[in-house]
Amino acid sequence: MLHFILHYRAFPVQELARGCTMNIWGWIGMFRRFLAVALCVAPAAFCADKSILELQRDVAALQEQVRGLQKSLDDKLADLAQKQAEQTRAAADQAVRSLASIGDRMQKSLQDRQDQESKNASAMAGMGARLQGLAGDVGTIKDSLADLNTALAKLATQLSDLGNAVKTMQTPVTPPSGQATPDPNAPQISASDLTSSAERDRSGGSLDLALQEYRDFLKWYPNDAQASEAQYRIGWIQYSLKHWDEAAASFDQVVEHYPESNRIAESLFYKGKSLVELGRRPEANEAFKLLRQRFPGSPLAKESTAIKPTTGK
Length: 313
Prior knowledge:
By secondary structure, this protein is mainly α. The protein has helices at 2-10, 24-170, 191-203, 207-220, 227-240, 244-257, 264-277, 281-294, 299-304, and strands at residues 14-17, 20-23. Among the domains are: 2-76; 189-313, Serine Threonine Protein Phosphatase 5, Tetratricopeptide repeat, CATH 1.25.40.10.
């Protein structure tokens, strides 16, 4: 470049451009100034390029460090995530085991409670059966006592008849002034024989004959100890013959006229059932209500609660 400048310095040239003449030295001077500026700027540019290169190396090193840190951070995060996952899995397994243990305990507790309830139910069923058997035994004993009372009443009647016979035998005989006329309404049989005959006919199925015999007994021996039993048997025969209206009236007479009778509970029960057959439910309910009030422990009182109205009545 310096050779080129010196070469054109020795040969001045004139150039015509656009009607103007410029001395070559003007151009040379301008080029010198440009060259001086270039020479001044070149070291600064060189220094700038060096700084840029160093900066680029530093940036590259920094990027490498960042990549290293990023990789280290990724590795640590991966390890931490794996540890957390393992811890979470372990906690979940522990929770599952705990829930399973709780479920087993609850299942065992529920099973124990069910077993206990089953035992209690069995015990209650056994107790109910025993109570029912006891109620049946009580009813049997009551019937036996009723039969015993009936037998005692018959025995009392026989003793009364025997006493009357003894008194008759001890009474002096008055000579008759004339032939006495027999009373056609006088009983031709003793009270005990009459009740025994009526009971035989009833047991043998001759209900109409037994019914008439019991009526004759009440007609001839209204104050006898067996009168209440005879009245009850009349109602029972009428009930068996499905004479509901007459049966209800006969059982009512037992309740009204013989309050000390041992047949009051049965009379109230069968009076109520007769009234149910007649469709007179309110009156039947009154009879059952009186039965439960007076004899709350009687099996008949419990049975009366289950009696339903007769269909079509």
